[in-house]
């Protein structure tokens, strides 16, 4: 089942660019890369797909590095008569160093041809085999699990999507949108899981999808682990990571294992390159530019909330009346916010920062720091409709920032607030959790 994804906007921009370079699509296994490109290929006069896991398709790529001859061989063997705009899709390109090397020559000698490459575990396997993309000769786009907006579109909740995108949101629509957001949180954004849920409306039927996904992730480890010891570590960490989501982690003895900091750190960074996890590092800066402090403990974010629910066995919680922001000690709400912010652009993979103040007598952690129109916007994800904003107030007192956002289970409102010390006044935008992807729209609304 092909869903309309946000990345199509980036693909169309690339297609309409007269100076387009070969495009590399990056994303975790099973987020829908192949399906997206196949669907996009329908907009071309000629679409050619090669799967470089298959020897019969790899054979076209040799050390000769002549794009014209290679293209002619492909068309001859595949019995294709190319016409008009032609797109060639090189899937699982990490299996052919020759195909990767040829990308620069496609760009330099056949600029009229459109070339897209993709592959699972792309960066890891290329690093393992010491293969590199030609610098400056390719472009990149990133595909993540489906966002809430994409989920609503896939589920044909068009009226709900229209209400979601109306700024400001109508408060009478919030209960309905919150209920749908809870369903999205339960199912997650993996396309196969979404398709199964839409088909059956039964979350128990989706469990087999999650189970197969985890199995495929663990089976993949043997492909990119450096040795048997690392294979064991990676397997343990894939199984443990969902339970560590939202926590600030240490590499030493990660998830109560006995592994040293060096081994654990290498394994976790490898899982991040596979885009199964994201290490969200803090910043201690109070003004732009914000520097990532990699010497401090990161927060762990997993690939997808649906996978977390399955692996931790908390799916039944969604059948209660408990709001999302109190579930699993608020971890689900923060995970969802992180997912939405990460997927807010398809041009880069940039896990959102958080802010920390770590002092002997006074610590503070602010959930997210985002930048809108060259301004820092502090964001707190709160449990329940009420709750202190101690870390947010600490940040405002230190910076004098005049605008902040709270994501919670209440209604949209804007209020003038003062920090407890009476040091600074500021504008607080209160947003329902499901508007995490639209923080920028509400910041611009309030600033007007």
Q: How would you sum up this structure, described in words?
A:
By secondary structure, the protein is an alpha/beta fold. Helix content is 40%, strand content 17%. The chain has 17 helices and 14 strands. Helix 16 (390-399) links the parallel strand 11 (375-381) and strand 12. The chain is globular and about 75 Å long.
Strand content: 15-25%
Shape: globular
Mean pLDDT: 93
Structural class, please? alpha/beta
User: What is the count of DSSP helices, taking H or I runs of 4+ residues?
Assistant: 17
- Largest sheet, described in full? 7 strands, mixed
Distance between the termini: 41 Å
Number of β-strand runs: 14
Level of helix content?
A: 25-40%
Specify Rg, calculated over alpha carbons. 23 Å
Pick out the low-confidence regions: none
List the helices and strands and how they pair.
Blueprint (H helix, E strand, L loop, with lengths): L6 H9 L7 E4 L6 H9 L4 E6 L3 H4 L8 H11 L8 E6 L5 H13 L4 E5 L3 H7 L10 E4 L5 H7 L3 H8 L8 H14 L3 H10 L6 H18 L3 H17 L16 H13 L3 E4 L1 E2 L15 E4 L2 H8 L18 H12 L10 E6 L4 E10 L2 E7 L8 H10 L3 E6 L4 E6 L6 E8 L6 H9 L1
Parallel strand pairs: 1-4, 1-5, 2-3, 3-4, 7-9, 11-12, 12-14
Antiparallel strand pairs: 6-8, 9-10, 10-11, 13-14
């Amino acid at each position: 089942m092909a869903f309309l994804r946000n990345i199509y906007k980036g693909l169309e921009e690339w297609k309409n660019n007269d100076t387009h370079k070969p495009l590399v699509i990056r994303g975790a296994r099973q987020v829908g890369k192949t399906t997206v490109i196949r669907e996009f290929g329908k907009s071309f006069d000629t679409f050619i797909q090669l799967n470089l896991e298959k020897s019969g398709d790899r054979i076209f790529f040799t050390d000769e590095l002549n794009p014209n001859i290679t293209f002619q061989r492909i068309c001859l063997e595949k019995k294709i008569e190319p016409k008009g705009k032609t797109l060639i899709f090189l899937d699982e390109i990490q299996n052919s160093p020759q195909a990767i090397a040829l990308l620069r020559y496609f760009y330099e000698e056949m600029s009229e041809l459109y070339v897209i490459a993709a592959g699972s575990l792309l960066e890891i396997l290329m690093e393992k085999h010491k293969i590199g993309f030609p610098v400056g000769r390719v472009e990149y786009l990133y595909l993540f699990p489906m966002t809430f907006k994409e989920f609503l579109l896939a589920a044909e909740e068009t009226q709900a999507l229209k209400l979601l995108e109306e700024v400001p949101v109508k408060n009478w629509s919030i209960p309905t949108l919150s209920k749908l957001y809870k369903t999205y949180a339960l199912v997650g954004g993996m396309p196969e899981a979404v398709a199964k849920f839409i088909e059956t409306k039964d979350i128990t039927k989706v469990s087999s999808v999650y189970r197969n996904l985890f199995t495929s992730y663990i089976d993949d480890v043997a492909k990119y682990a450096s040795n048997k010891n690392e294979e064991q570590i990676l397997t343990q960490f894939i199984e443990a990571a969902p339970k560590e989501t939202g926590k600030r982690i240490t590499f030493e003895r990660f998830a109560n294992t006995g592994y040293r900091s060096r081994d654990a750190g290498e394994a976790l960074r490898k899982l991040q390159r596979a885009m199964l996890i994201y290490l969200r590092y803090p910043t201690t800066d109070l003004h732009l530019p914000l520097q990532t402090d990699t010497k401090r403990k990161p927060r762990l974010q997993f690939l997808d909330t649906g996978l977390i629910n399955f692996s931790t066995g908390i799916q039944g919680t969604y059948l209660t009346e408990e709001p999302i922001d109190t579930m699993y000690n608020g971890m689900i709400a923060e995970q969802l916010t992180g997912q939405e912010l990460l997927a807010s652009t398809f041009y880069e993979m940039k896990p959102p920062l958080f802010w920390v103040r770590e002092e002997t007598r006074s610590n503070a952690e602010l959930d997210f720091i985002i930048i809108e129109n060259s301004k820092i916007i502090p964001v707190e994800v709160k449990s329940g409709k009420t709750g202190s904003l101690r870390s947010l107030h600490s940040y405002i007192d230190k910076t004098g920032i005049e605008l902040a956002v709270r994501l919670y289970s209440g209604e949209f409102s804007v209020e003038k607030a003062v920090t407890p010390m009476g040091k600074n006044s500021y504008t607080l935008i209160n947003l329902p959790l499901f508007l995490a992807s639209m923080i920028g729209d509400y910041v611009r609304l309030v600033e007007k």
